[in-house]
Amino acid sequence: MIPSNIFASKGAVISALATILLLSFNENSAVAFTPTSTSSAPSLRITPIVKSSNVKLHSAIEDTTPIQSEPVSPSMSLLEHFITEYQQSLEGGSKWATEFGFAEEGEDAPESAFYAIFRAIRQVDAKTNNADGSSSGEKLMGLRGVPMYVPNYILARAEQKHQNAFCDFFHFPHLAKALEEDFLDAQRGSTNNRKGWQVAAVSQPTGSSFNDARMTLPEVNAALEAGTVIFNNIGAHIPRLAGPTLASTDALSLPGALNMYVTAKGMRTSAPPHTDRQDVLVVQMEGAKRWRVFTPPTDGDVKPNADPFARGKGEDSLPLHTLLEGSEGRLGSELLMDVVTREGDVLYIPAGFPHTTDTVEESNDVDYDTSIHLTFNIDTHVWDLDYLAARSAALQRNKVNDALSPQSENRYVGKVNQLPQNIRSEVMDALPLEFLDIIPSESPDFMNGVAKQLAKKCNLVDEATGQSAELSEASYVEALERIHSYGSDILDVHRDMYLAAVEEGRLRKAEDAMTAHLKKDDGEVTMSNERMQRLSLFRVRPFFEQIESLKKDLYSWCVSGESIAQESAASSQLDPNWQFTAALKVGDEVEADLGGAFFAGKIAQVTGNTYNVVFFDGDRENGLERDQIKLLNPPTAADEDEFDTTGMTPKEIKRMRKKMEKKKRK
């Protein structure tokens, strides 16, 4: 999957319309889940492709021999757990689909299966995370995660059907219709497996009119001759795909996105080797695609500035031949899986695991023109829902220097990659998937458990770097609470965006039924001005403006000042009689004792051990002793940085403060 934040420009025409924002290993055998009947199993030959001390996997390759395909994963126990959870989640998926109008009561809808499969991921992740936030057993997600391949017939058997609900859901004619109805944009990916994955625009405006600026089906077909056509964040643009995207978002309680990849048959490299920031679930919609998945590279100490979640993208290269060198090679990666996905098959790849694809078939008998797969993004790392982001927020908020000190806004590059592999993987772990489901004030045990895990991971970093952050658990809880608030807001924006797309689809369907007689003889859709204003490029943009605002708010909070936890700690160390003993400075709000009655005022000048106070009516009282003055607000840690104002006039104090502020900025 390519990076999800891509801006596409259509020249003057797009400038006049809008800027399009597109987010757009423990088992020795993979034999399990033998079906009770061969009638629904594809005609496949199972060939062992990886044999090592810890794993033996299989590839599904088309053949005339009627032997069944098997699910594939380095952990068959985790895979079996996943399939069980999928079956148990189908009922909940059906209720969800009915609630949102995708199906009538008692009916089945593909959206219910999409909900169930993401709920299964959620349940598997929850059962590998303990109540205290720690992990037990094998993890599903992240650099310590486990990839999985599940063929169509296994899911169909769980649904008690001949083929699963994903089959026939989205094909090339659906894409052609979407291009006709909307204003979509796409990129074409490069195909050199020795260089980083690059993208280029599929279309360019051919004139000044609206229709001249739209991407057309012929342009997509032309791009398919040169590489994979990539539709980023397509779940927010095509109403038919908004339902599955909403299902994934609701089932995971996590902001996510959907990308679509279209590749012509016979492409030797449809995606060069790369890694993704997201844990991804791939659902094959049409045709077939070969996937090779590798263990994460271990060359972080050699290439610290290479983002482990974006290897093989842009200027970073991840040549296939270096991955194939194995665990003793330059990258230290090992081939885990080599599978061919066909319609209805599902493939799960954790974040940071290199993978590459092609559509070269060993048999010419396979009948398809294009391969289409949907990639659902589990965006924990994208939206700061991991321990590294929480650590960074806590340090920034408390103004503690970061031993990892990233040189850019990307916290995944730099010194963090020079940590020992096990520590780097731990600190880059995602927060538990149920993190956004809980209400922090009502779940103190959960929040404290996650905070303890955060503190533990931070201590590992401190030990490895020789530095100490010395933050309290309260500081970690505070950072987690702020990230929870931010993540919940981001989640709400995503849900609203996908619901808007679903509603648009229903509105179009109703309009089409009423205006079918207006359709031109050549099949071209007549688009009213009102409908044009509802095109996805206009509909989606405000949601991402909200997201950008939320991101800025989180950053401002991180750098705005000392934490509540620090203030609380400082307050707990105050003299119980602090109101009459704490040091005073010019500007402090106080009450002064004038003959047994206290009057509100402010400190105007400090002279030795006496104080001048100005009252609300302008009167002044000079030479008051400390025990005659009651400080109204407790001093904070920031007050310790104040200078001695003894004998200084207000103007002198003001000049000194400016001088100190300049010194701080330096």
Count every beta strand, where a strand is a DSSP E run of 2 or more residues: 21
Helix content: 25-40%
Summarize the biggest pleated sheet.
Answer: 8 strands, antiparallel
Radius of gyration, taken over Cα atoms and rounded to an integer in Å: 30 Å
Q: Number of helix segments?
A: 18
**Computed structural class:** alpha+beta
* Shape, principal axes of CA atoms: globular
Low-confidence stretches: 2-68, 637-641
| Amino-to-carboxy terminus distance | 42 Å
Structural write-up:
By secondary structure, the chain is α+β, with helices and mostly antiparallel strands. The chain is built from 18 helices and 21 strands. The chain has helices at 11-17, 76-99, 110-127, 152-159, 172-181, 210-213, 217-224, 239-252, 320-323, 387-397, 421-427, 444-465, 473-514, 529-532, 536-559, 564-572, 578-581, 650-665, and strands at residues 6-8, 20-22, 44-51, 56-62, 148-150, 187-189, 199-201, 229-231, 256-264, 271-274, 279-286, 288-294, 335-342, 346-349, 355-358, 370-378, 589-594, 597-607, 610-615, 620-624, 629-631. The strands form five sheets. Strands 5-14-11-16-9-8-6-7 form an eight-stranded antiparallel beta sheet. Strands 20-19-18-17-21 form a five-stranded antiparallel beta sheet. Strands 10-15-12-13 form a four-stranded antiparallel beta sheet, with no helix packed on it. Strand 17 (589-594) and strand 18 form a beta hairpin. Helix 10 (387-397) crosses helix 13 and helix 11 (421-427) packs antiparallel against helix 12 (444-465). Mean pLDDT is 81; it is low at 2-68 and 637-641.
